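Reviewers of the previous submission asked for a worked example of the structure-prediction workflow described in the proposal, so we include one complete record here. The input consisted solely of the amino acid sequence. No template or homolog information was supplied to the procedure at any stage.
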Amino acid sequence: MVKFRSYFERHYPRLERVIAIIALINFGLVIFDLTYLNLRPVYRQYFAAVTHIYDPLKGIQAHPQTARYQAQVERLAGQLNQADLRSPEVTASLADLQTLSEPLVSEPAFAQPHGSYALATLQQLLQARTGQASTQEALTQFWSVSYLEQRGWQSELEFWDSQIQPFFRANYYRTVNRWGTPTDYFWLLDLPFVLIFAVDIGARIVATRRRHPALTWGEATLRRWYDLLLILPFWRAWRILPVVLRLYQVDVLNLDPVQAEAQRGVIVTVGADIAGISGIAIIEQLQDAIRQGELLNWIALIDPVVDSSGNIVAEEEMTAIAHRLYQVGIDSILPQVQPDIEDLVQHSIAKTLEQMPGYPHIKHLPGLGQVSAQVQLLSQSVAQNLYRSLASSLLDAEGTAITTRLQHHLREAIAAELSQHNTRHEIEDRLVSALDKFKYKYVKGLTESGGETLAEHTELLRRQIS
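From that input alone, the workflow returned the following structure tokens.
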């Protein structure tokens, strides 16, 4: 498939490759930013350093409600290591936890996009652990002295640390700016790339304007309109279009198979329609020529067209065609049908003898039984002599002249016959009818194949050429 290369790709291939790689890096950062909130639990679990660095850029901080709750749990664990479960300070901490549990359930304390999932998981774990039907009752029972004494506070705190605490630590909230939208400083990370792309796009526009002064600045900009997506501060995901095109143009990415498959359906459909329309137009023009008598006039030269010098147009061509057909008939066709000609001559002679007076009475006389054999030999001799005569007529000048005169007279006879209205009208009607049937089969074949055969043949020819 032919690849279009712009002026910059042809004259500055290394620079274009560098810009394409920078665009690829920038698009990778864009995808990382767009998916960061969804994949933050994964980064926090396996790549904690990433969240420490990137959380400030998204305005992410520990959620105060869940942070206060977790701090109270850690305070309770420290008190249980130093005091009894029924000590006043432990009882007070348990009461505080029961109080903090109410807004934890009733208010959306967990941030999206995983807040509802985290809350639902917590509810299921706590209800299954305590056997209570509601989350509020489960938390109230979990932080009670009787429950911790019965189940053992060490095992319950271990359950909390392993099953519940990860959701609290992963919870966060995002600060907002003066416009009331979540804080996002990704534009600072994106700004150097945008400046590079802006300089590159500006240089392309100026160069295009200089090489094509007839273009306006707007038209020069639209020559590479998709590059503008690289400098937009919104719709950053659409940068995939200029990035992929740039990588393809510098031969880093091979899009030929994808492009071929993407265009195949359109090419097949449009190609089949064009082939159908073109074929129908040609057939209908031929039918109009037949109805108006132009085709038969040209073949038989009934109404010859004369050029400026007075010569009949197509006279030489028609004579050459007739001479060639005559030669082919003598050299190739007559030898193949010679047995049939011999049978025809034999049949004609036998019929002639039968029509002679008295022949039916004398053919049974002795010595006349060999007449049929003699007739057969005579027919063979006549056919062979006829073939030799016709073949030898092309070898001498007089025979050639006679043949040419015969062809001319034959064409005149055909023209005279075609001038008859009935004969001409019948031939034209039959030709038009035959073309109608051919047109129907032509369109039907294109419809049934859907243009696939045409596309496959074209693709095969392109591969052979390349």
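The chain is about 75% helix and 0% strand. We consider this example representative of the routine output the project will generate in years two and three.
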